[in-house]
Amino acid sequence: MERVAEDFGYIVSLHPKAIQGAWNPSGCHTNFSTNEMRSTEKGLEAIEAAIENMSEKHFEHINVYGQDNHLRLTGEYETGHISVFSYGVGNRGASIRIPRKVASDGKGYMEDRRPASNIDPYEVVSIIMKSSFNYQPPSLFEFIYP
């Protein structure tokens, strides 16, 4: 993208609020699901359990969700506020949105709406995986010397 823009004299910006004003900022909403979340039996229950776990690590998520994300997560323009964790069905102003169809089907995925457009996708996937399962990797020292 940057290379093509260069040919036409443009500059690409991944800044979450590249131009100030009354319009939506740039995010990298991240959809997430597991086999259990997509199953018919306990899908929605698994989604809500993951969200509960993620809520406890909200500020750890914010720390890796992009530079200058505070300019984006203001609580306006279909964003939640950076200092408040929230979730809801069909709520585009929540930290995490459960799509209406997912709620009615009782299975599917969730959308983390907090990541900014300038994130490192590997860090985002890592923290979502760790916090949604409440996973703490063992230290190398404990692994070598039980």
TrEMBL record:
<keyword id="KW-0547">Nucleotide-binding</keyword>
<keyword id="KW-0963">Cytoplasm</keyword>
<dbReference type="InterPro" id="IPR050292">
    <property type="entry name" value="Glutamine_Synthetase"/>
</dbReference>
<protein>
    <recommendedName>
        <fullName>glutamine synthetase</fullName>
        <ecNumber>6.3.1.2</ecNumber>
    </recommendedName>
</protein>
<dbReference type="GO" id="GO:0004356">
    <property type="term" value="F:glutamine synthetase activity"/>
</dbReference>
<comment type="similarity">
    <text>Belongs to the glutamine synthetase family.</text>
</comment>
<keyword id="KW-0067">ATP-binding</keyword>
<dbReference type="GO" id="GO:0005524">
    <property type="term" value="F:ATP binding"/>
</dbReference>
<dbReference type="GO" id="GO:0006542">
    <property type="term" value="P:glutamine biosynthetic process"/>
</dbReference>
<keyword id="KW-0436">Ligase</keyword>
<dbReference type="InterPro" id="IPR014746">
    <property type="entry name" value="Gln_synth/guanido_kin_cat_dom"/>
</dbReference>
<dbReference type="GO" id="GO:0005737">
    <property type="term" value="C:cytoplasm"/>
</dbReference>
<feature type="domain" description="GS catalytic">
    <location>
        <begin position="1"/>
        <end position="146"/>
    </location>
</feature>
<dbReference type="InterPro" id="IPR008146">
    <property type="entry name" value="Gln_synth_cat_dom"/>
</dbReference>
